[in-house]
Amino acid sequence: MLDRLRRNPRPFLLALAGVVVLGGFFVVVAPLFNAGGAPMAEVAGAIPSSAPVGRVLEVDVGLDNTGTSYLNPICLRAAVAGPLRADHVVFQNLDTVPFKNGVACGGALGSQETISVRIYLQPTGAGTADVTFIPLQGDAPLGGMLSGTIRLER
């Protein structure tokens, strides 16, 4: 048998190539189909410590799907206490969505995907405002929120 393999190695090389291609598929492509698991996401970024009253405040954050499930719709809740109002959100510099009852939804987020989100807040007076941004899938909170206090000055 070894002598036959030395004379004609083609079948062995074809079988080896098939194993390599099949192994490559399971290592590279198969994990892309794993869309199960508990939905999880987090909001990451920095909330400014102060802002002027006369201008719209812009907060840039990242919205990260930290789980393996597909999130649709992906939403962001802005819980605001103090002289500040959540106005609208821009998802991926493409979709501008107004806040309705403190929530703005903007499309879907794939497994392990991160998108940029620009949140616009309107100061309504001087004082101190507490802000919390919470990622949601529909109405369900997904985890890692971002919180901070902003001093609004004239």
Description:
The chain is an alpha+beta fold and 154 residues long. It folds into 2 domains: 2-33; 41-153, Immunoglobulins (Immunoglobulin-like, Sandwich), CATH 2.60.40. Helix content is 17%, strand content 46%. The chain contains 2 helices and 11 strands, in the order H-H-E-E-E-E-E-E-E-E-E-E-E. The strands form 2 sheets. Strands 2, 4, 7, 9, 10 and 11 form a 6-stranded mixed sheet that branches. Strands 1-3-8-5-6 form a 5-stranded antiparallel sheet, with no helix packed on it. The longest helix has 20 residues, at 10-29. The radius of gyration is 25 Å and the shape is rod-shaped. The chain starts with a helix and ends with a strand.
- CATH-level-4 superfamily name of the largest domain: Immunoglobulins
Categorize the overall geometry: rod-shaped
Between the first and last Cα atoms, what is the distance in angstroms? Answer: 89 Å
Largest sheet: 6 strands, mixed
Structural class: alpha+beta
Radius of gyration, rounded? 25 Å
Instruction: Please report the total strand number as a whole number.
Output: 11
**CATH-level-2 architecture of the largest domain:** Sandwich
Approximate strand percentage:
over 45%
Mean pLDDT: 88
Order of helices and strands: HHEEEEEEEEEEE
Give the uncertain stretches in residue-range form. Answer: none
Percent helix range? 10-25%
CATH top level of the largest domain is: Mainly Beta
Task: Give the secondary structure arrangement, pairings included.
Elements: H1 2-7, H2 10-29, E1 41-45, E2 50-52, E3 57-65, E4 74-81, E5 84-91, E6 95-98, E7 103-105, E8 114-123, E9 127-137, E10 140-141, E11 146-153
Parallel strand pairs: 2-11
Antiparallel strand pairs: 1-3, 3-8, 4-7, 4-9, 5-6, 5-8, 9-10, 9-11
